[in-house]
Amino acid sequence: MRNRISTLNMDAVYTKPGYLFRRMQQIAVSIFIEECSEYELTPVQFAALVAIQTHPGIDATRLSAVIAFDRSTLGNVIERLEAKQYVERKPSFEDRRTKLLYLTRSGAALLRDVMPAVDRAQARMLQPLKPADRKLLMALLTQLVDLNNEASRVPLRAEDALEHLGKSN
Amino acid sequence: MRNRISTLNMDAVYTKPGYLFRRMQQIAVSIFIEECSEYELTPVQFAALVAIQTHPGIDATRLSAVIAFDRSTLGNVIERLEAKQYVERKPSFEDRRTKLLYLTRSGAALLRDVMPAVDRAQARMLQPLKPADRKLLMALLTQLVDLNNEASRVPLRAEDALEHLGKSN
DNA sequence: CACAGATTGACAGCATACTTACAATATGGA
DNA sequence: TCCATATTGTAAGTATGCTGTCAATCTGTG
């Protein structure tokens, strides 16, 4: 009896989207860290490295828009990547407020080497589902994230960032 | 041309489940905080309160299993809930290592009052999808989180926790 | 040109989320 | 009973993720 009531009450948490999103994020990070353990790379650090490789000479503010990542936090992330010598920060001559970001040779090498582990991690996250359901979930999630973009504190602004970058590149 | 290449490369991040889970979690938290702003309650604090109400006299370790929440972090969460006087910690006589958790009168009142805001938040997260797609996404996510339970650093152990609790209640 | 307003990176502070380590306490087997 | 082992809460350390604030710098308008 007790259990029946208890279970019912906890459903106020278990069956809600917010709870499931949090759990899934925890699981995803856990799997990512595990697969990439020999490189000591976090999901966020990986995303930052890919974005810097894709947009060499990008500044921190635009980088934050490109990966929908908070600007304050990003400072620390870049610091860590710099400490590991995967990234270089060079002062800009055009705008002395900004520092431009570049992948080092060692950062590019790491990115190349870590790719298989990242792919394994991404595959493992969806593994338990049937292939058709994986596609379905990804389609729905992509749609939902896109439609909810503005609800996020740091909306994705990939195109804007590219536009501005165009000038100095 | 540059843009085409750039966009292609960033797809190594944008189209991956890990990235989408992170973004969706950010969006979900953002919406939750916004809807519950007048109560200054976070998603995790809410889950903890519901679990304590459901299992009065639970200890911190079992609470962490019931909401799949890291034990170390939970200490700080409880501290904050205690500071706001929503929760009481009483030493156990049976096991002097543990402290038993109870909702205060004010905590129970808050939980009752905040419920509509929480419901609004949960609804908003899925709002952009068609009703049928909302159900589909929830079904797939529930399944995936359940099947990936062991991959999480803090797997959900709802029943175990209940069992142990049964003795002292 | 001057100056109001915006932008940039840095910092401080709060809240998850995790790891390892530790002291106090409990438990089960010799 | 004694003692190896496990459990509990706590703390320190790292890493996101967010809010503010601030000084330096840039930009657009008058």
What kind of sheet is the major sheet of chain A? 3 strands, antiparallel
- Ranges of chain A where pLDDT stays below 50 over 5 or more residues in a row are 164-169
Give the radius of gyration of chain A. Answer: 19 Å
**Average pLDDT for all residues of chain A:** 89
Outline of chain A: globular
The span between the termini of chain A is 68 Å
Element order, helices and strands of chain A?
A: HHHEHHEEHHH
Strand order of the largest sheet of chain A: 1-3-2
| Amount of beta strand of chain A | 5-15%
Could you characterize what this model shows?
The structure is a homodimer of 169-residue chains. The first copy, chain A, is mainly alpha-helical and 169 residues long. Chain A has 8 helices and 3 strands; from the N terminus they run αααβααββααα. In chain A, strand 2 and strand 3 form a beta hairpin. In chain A, helix 4 packs across helix 5 and helix 4 packs antiparallel against helix 8. Chain A is globular, with a radius of gyration of 19 Å. The N and C termini of chain A lie far apart (68 Å). The C terminus of chain A is likely disordered. The interface between A and B is large, with 69 and 69 residues. Chain A binds a DNA duplex (30 and 30 nucleotides) through helix 2, helix 3 and helix 5.
